[in-house]
Specification:
The complex is a heterodimer of chains A (183) and B (436). Chain A is mainly alpha-helical and 183 residues long. Chain A has one domain. Chain A is built from nine helices and four strands; from the N terminus they run ααββαββαααααα. In chain A, a hairpin with a 2-residue loop joins β1 (49-51) and β2 (54-56). In chain A, α7 (122-138) crosses α9. Chain A is globular and about 50 Å long. Chain B is α+β, with helices and mostly antiparallel strands and 436 residues long. Chain B has helices spanning 20-27, 29-33, 54-72, 81-84, 93-108, 121-124, 131-140, 142-151, 155-167, 175-185, 191-204, 213-219, 242-260, 263-279, 289-292, 297-309, 316-323, 336-339, 345-357, 388-391, 393-397, 413-428; strands at residues 5-10, 14-19, 220-227, 230-238, 329-333, 362-368, 377-379, 385-387, 402-408. In chain B, strands 3-4-7-8 form a four-stranded mixed sheet. In chain B, strands 5-9-6 form a three-stranded antiparallel sheet, with helices on both faces. In chain B, strands 1-2 form a two-stranded antiparallel ribbon. In chain B, α7 runs antiparallel to α9 and α19 crosses α22 (413-428). Chain B is globular. The termini of chain B are far apart. The chains are: A mainly alpha (183), B alpha+beta (436). Chain A binds chain B through residues 3-5, 7, 23, 25, 27, 47, 49-53, 58, 61-62, 65-66, 68-72, 75, 77, 80-84, 90-91, 94-95, 97-102, 121-124, 126, 154, 157, and chain B through 165-166, 169, 172-173, 175, 178, 226-232, 339-344, 368-372, 375, 386-387, 389-390, 396, 400-402, 430-435.
Amino acid sequence: MKRLQRDAVILSLIENLKVNGSWCGETHIQKATYFIQELFRVPLGFEFVLYKHGPFSFDLSKELTAMQADRLLDVQLQPRPYGPSLVPGDSSDLIKRNFAVTVKKYHSQIAFVAEQFGDKKVSELERLSTALLVTREIEPDGSLESRAQCITRLKPHVKIDEAQEAVMAVDQIVEKSYNVKTT
Amino acid sequence: MAKYIHEIRDPIHNFIHLDSHEREVLDSRPFQRLRYIHQLGLTYLVYPGATHRRFEHSLGVMELAGRVYDIITNPINIIHDSVRNVVPPKDSYKHVYWRLVLRMAALCHDLGHLPFSHTAEKELLPEGWDHERLTLEIIRSDEMRSIWDDIKVNSEDVAKLAVGQNSYRDARFNDWEAILSEIITGNSFGVDRMDYLLRDSHHAGVAYGKFDHYRLIDTIRILPKEEDGSLEPVLGIEQGGLHSAEALLLARYFMFTQLYFHPVRRIYDIHLKDFLKEWLSSDYFHTTLKDYLKLTDNEILTELSRAARDESFRGHDPARRIVNREHFKLLYQRNPKDFEKNPDAANAIFEAVCEEYGEKKVRIDLYKQSNKGHEFPVLTDDGRIVPSLELSDTLKNVPIVAVDYVFIDHELREDAQIWKKQNLESIISLKEEDNS
């Protein structure tokens, strides 16, 4: 996917997250993009690593900064405890209009991820995305219990019952994602 | 071995102190190589004073890393329980160990740099290699391992902190390690950046890079970054240091726009890359350490000079452009009017100019700042922890560095400028995707 096509997908994701109740901080966008790539293999090409609080892409972070430089995104301050939001910038309509075909192609995947995660708090997103990473990369055959334990080993600030809940939720989301029709 | 404290004079930090263990690293062959790697590549062709090397920068980074460590781990500066659990108690074995590791990592963070600190690593190194990977390889090498074994330091700990998680993606960092690597490579308060801004500014003779680093370092704290139910320990500052933090970020902006991205400096860098690509017999720099460590700017300069004089020499054309100052000239640069019509305007122009005048006569240079580093927690005078953007209008408005240049052979510039004027609008108009 070319850079501006990728930016169009990110802009659409942000709009959909917002519609579903998200305040769209960078963490929301990071985790939602991780889910889009991991659940649906949408070829955005971002490399994610397990960072302090779950999967994080330095490449995506760089792209979000580049989008601000190009006025595709703006930063909007939110009252505490929320961090700054990323919102579509002055030039975003141009990209959405010119790359409408790409956005349409991935619309159902974007909508699914936004519906599932739009209303989640940052701390929940961290647990859910870490649960998916553990399930996909570290313990693909692991039981619920062993995956939950793995999460608490990797992220000691996560309690075992929170980890178990996250693994269960992620299993259900993965199951539901199979029903999403892709074009 | 008896432990002595050595002192080295430095134009930025006055004295840099190092102990005998650190002296062993300084005396090693990979570190001594940095004496012959220019910090700013060929920038001295534009700013004649900018002839300083990676060697003194690495010493400066070590000095500042030690200072930051002492401040942030001082018990009176640890004000939040979530942070207290992360930091080893002062004077404990772990506290002393990690201070040593941090300073060693700071000393070693640039060991893998290519000659002239060249940044075109994708084109000059085999796939999967960059200077950070070379740094990791050097830190793990037999030569360095004997030093680590001698001082009972785990080389992997040094490696992780030296390159940070952005570059060492296979490694898992706990909160403490992430904070320590942030001291060196962090976007907001990384001492690598602090040292290079001060040092480059001093040597280039420009004032833009200066800021009150004494005040800034004194006010750095580990603070919990709170966001919607999530607490993440990161480097932040006390409110009294906010103006110094603003000055640091403004210094970075001005240094990037005025010095690092000076168009003539950038085109010299591109000609040097072209020369290296032609000159390297295997297309890439060797990544076996034995061969890699032999190459410094000295060897390249000798070859560059020979190639500039001899037409039959590989890389003659780009070499003569550098040596005889016949570099390509700026034809186009990024501007708001154009990138609002097409964020990729420079690329569109580059492709069109290549088609018109031929690829060999045109070069492109695209850069966007990778992270702003404007967001960090601030400990206010009344004990609250507040996001920096809430307190500082300056931080909100520091622009993001973005530079797009298209260069053309100086002999074609005049003609190309007329051609560009006639065709610009149609070239940069963004076409809609079709459904096919």
